[in-house]
Specification:
Helices cover 43% and strands 12% of the residues. It is α/β, with parallel strands linked by helices. The chain folds into two domains: 5-55 and 68-190, no CATH class; 203-296, no CATH class. The chain has a six-stranded mixed beta sheet. The chain is elongated. It starts with a strand and ends with a helix. Residues 1-20 are annotated as: Disordered.
């Protein structure tokens, strides 16, 4: 059977593992009985925007003689996480179905690998990562438009396993990414409790800048407003939802313009608000706030 080497983890709660072929496995659950092998796919457009923003932020903080670090991430990033099968099934309907429904090959592979380990009298929690069942999952950036999603995904897994997260200062973009990923994997309720209480996420103030600059180019104001609406909706915060919706109605939206071209719209989740919120806002603005609150209840 396989062997794994240990390396020190950042949080000191245990150690990450290394497979026989040199791949690092993040031990969210050191005694986990399954490995989730996640491929994060990011478009070149998203990467370019991320790198420009990253470089701009570093220029503001680095010393004049300090060199900029190499660009982070790539279009395909694979990260493996050692996790508890029971926790995944209990916390997420998505994983409960994928990992236990015999119609899926993933469930069959898990049963087979666990049966093999038991037949060799190897406790699942003591098995090497190479010998555990590996389940492949892919995640693209269509909804999040974010690079480096592996960090938010790891923190989401830590929340499900009741472990401390690594990101202690949740930004709006971080909260948006995690909320969208949690919605996709059907574990919003648990993640919402963590973001609303444990992480003490601070909602940013709305910018007073116009929606477009002097050159007629859109600013990031409407995006921020829409992200606040989406996150408050997903996290179940009706008062935040009411406030954010009111702000967008007052400021207006490029989507409500007669010049808006739907075929050029972004696939980002905040530009495609769920459950009919967007269409109701643009057609019946006076009733929009009451409508979104009714939907959420």
């Amino acid at each position: 059977m396989g062997e794994s080497a240990a390396t020190a983890s950042a949080d000191g709660e245990g150690s990450d593992s290394t497979t026989a072929d040199g791949r690092r496995v993040v031990n969210v659950a050191v005694d986990g009985d399954i490995v989730l092998d996640v491929t994060f796919e990011t478009s070149l457009e998203t990467l370019r925007k991320h790198r420009r923003a990253e470089a701009a932020a570093l220029r503001k903080t680095r010393a004049p003689s300090q060199q900029l670090p190499p660009a982070s991430s790539g279009t395909r990033v694979r990260v493996a996480y050692r996790l508890s099968l029971e926790v995944l099934k209990r916390s997420s309907k998505y994983f409960a179905n994928l990992l236990s429904n015999s119609k899926f090959c993933e469930a069959e592979a898990i049963s087979s690998a666990h049966a093999t380990l038991r037949s060799m009298r190897i406790p699942l929690k003591e098995a090497a990562v190479d010998d555990l069942p590996w389940v492949a999952v892919a995640d693209d950036d269509d909804a999040t438009k974010a690079a480096g999603r592996e960090a938010a995904f790891e923190d989401m897994m830590r929340i499900l396993h009741r472990k401390p997260v690594k990101e202690i200062r949740a930004t709006m973009s971080y909260a948006t990414t995690m909320a969208i990923i949690a919605d996709r994997f059907d574990c919003v309720a648990i993640v919402a409790r963590a973001l609303n209480t444990d992480l003490k996420f601070k909602w940013p103030l709305t910018s007073t800048k116009p929606l477009v600059d002097d050159a007629g180019r859109p600013t990031d104001v409407e995006q921020a407003l829409r992200q606040k609406i989406l996150v408050s909706w997903l996290l179940g915060q009706p008062l935040r939802l009411q406030q954010s919706s009111r702000e967008l109605i007052i400021r207006g939206s490029s989507h409500w313009s007669v010049y808006h071209e739907p075929e050029t719209a972004s696939t980002a989740a905040w530009w495609n608000l769920p459950d009919g919120i967007e269409s109701r806002k643009s057609i019946l603005k006076p009733n929009s706030i009451r409508y979104v609150l009714t939907l959420r209840r």
